[in-house]
Design goal:
- The chain is of the alpha+beta class and about 100 residues long.
- It has a domain at about 35-90: Arc Repressor Mutant, subunit A, CATH 1.10.10.10.
- About 40% of the residues lie in helices and about 15% in strands.
- It is built from four helices and two strands, in the order ββαααα.
- The protein has helices at about 35-45, 50-60, 60-75, 80-90; strands at about 5-15, 15-20.
- Strands 1-2 form a two-stranded antiparallel ribbon.
- The longest helix has 15 residues, at about 60-75.
- The radius of gyration is 16 Å and the shape is elongated.
- The relative contact order is 0.19.
- The model is unreliable at about 95-100 (pLDDT under 50).
Length: about 100
Amino acid sequence: MSDAKPRVSFAEIGGERIAVLSFPSPRLRYPDGATEAERQIVDLLVDGFSAAEIAERRQASPRTVARQLADLFGKAGVNSQAELIAKLLEAPRGRDHGDGD
């Protein structure tokens, strides 16, 4: 995970000054062999989207997203979305999200 710290900035909205607290995104370890589409699905899962919302957002059928999730589960050796997210947020190994590779 990143050593980046939360950041505070200020914005003026409706004539009032408010504080905005930003947190760094977690670094993810994608499963070996994950496709670009599967990586996008992982990112959306981590952002809290359901499988149905992911399908709508990606303009894909729910069946396609379900198949891609099943493929991800197999590649990661897990049985659920919760297990997948937990495993991908574990200590870094291999290729991290956002490392530019």
